[in-house]
Amino acid sequence: MMTGNRLRTIVLIVAAGLAGMAAVGGCYSQRRSELSRVPDKEHLVGGGIMIEWQAPEPGTVYLVEERTGKIVETRSLAAGGVYSFSVTSIVQASDYEELLGIKFSRTRFLLYFEPAREKVLAQQARLTK
Fold first, then answer.
1. 26 pLDDT exceeds 60?
2. 66-84: per-residue pLDDT in tens?
């Protein structure tokens, strides 16, 4: 059987560990993701909660939440392909809050487009290094 002091020590250690995990988890969702590969600002083509954009050439679109840096969606498009995005219900807004870890009213969706030719050139440059 455990003594009272030993039991209190274990409870305090477990409580401190849980509090630390909660603090780190809560802060993490507010931090910008450093793992995502978001195209440069020069590839920014639009944004908002209602987007309809047509690709001028083959490439990839990236829907990114600006504050967190999280990539919400990527999609390959052919020349003339249309990318559509909209948030039209409270349920969708709630889903995005859960996904992004911030209030929907604070989200700012940005749309980037990376032409396929640029992606191929970047990959070739990495291979030749």
1. no
2. 999 999 999 999 999 999 9
How far is CA 7 from each of CA 3, 17, 19, 126, rounded to the nearest angstrom? 6, 15, 18, 56
Residue 17 corresponds to which tokens in the numbers above? 């560990």
Q: Which helix (H) or strand (E) holds 4?
A: helix 4-28
d(CA 77, CA 85): 14
Q: For residue 93, give every residue at least 6 positions away whose Cβ sits within 8 Å of its Cβ, in sequence order, or none.
A: 87, 104
Among the listed residues 78, 80, 71, 77, the one whose alpha carbon sits nearest the alpha carbon of residue 111:
71
Cα separations in angstroms, 47 against 4, 69, 121: 59, 14, 26
